[in-house]
Amino acid sequence: MTFLKKAALFCMAASVLLLQGCSSLPQPSNPLSNWGVSGKIGITTPKESVAGFIEWQQLENNFDVYVSGPLSVGSTRIKGNAERISITQNGKTISGLNPQKLIYEQLGWFFPVQNLPFWLKGQAAPYSAASKTEEDGRLMQIKQDKWLVAYPRYNEYYDQPSKIKISQGQWKFLIVIKNWTFDS
After folding, report:
1. In this prediction, what percent of the chain has a pLDDT beyond 70?
2. pTM greater than 0.85 (yes/no)
3. Which fold has domain 3-122+166-183?
4. Within 13 Å of residue 42, how many CA atoms lie on the same side as its CB?
């Protein structure tokens, strides 16, 4: 499996795990539970860097995350809810009940996916301690679960993050959100 495929699978699985974790944990104060983002994702490791596209839809506790490389090379789809997830890549689908375990088994990586839905919306996850840095009333940085999440840019119309940098040690993730969608 190429690194790009592993990166795409990891990003999708991370998103799924995060969404799955959210369904059984306290919900954030933001009442919007149906939302989506689309944009670009970059992953830097000690050995290489990869980039791709990400689309994430969350409807209540159900999620649908799609990550692809340029020209749809290495595309991965992760769908599920609190009870079950499925990861589809190259026409093969793997299903499981434990997203974190499935990601680890398939990729050998650990990532706090349970935090990602909150971090994407510019919020600290509600179930672990976090330190926050704000500037002019806007969240600029979160330190949580040994990860640093920085928000260097916001979408002015939606007042939601449009650039998110997530890092811990040698792992760096950059998510640039081009579009936000919200349904009530």
Report:
1. 73
2. no
3. outer membrane lipoprotein receptor (LolB), chain A (2.50.20)
4. 10
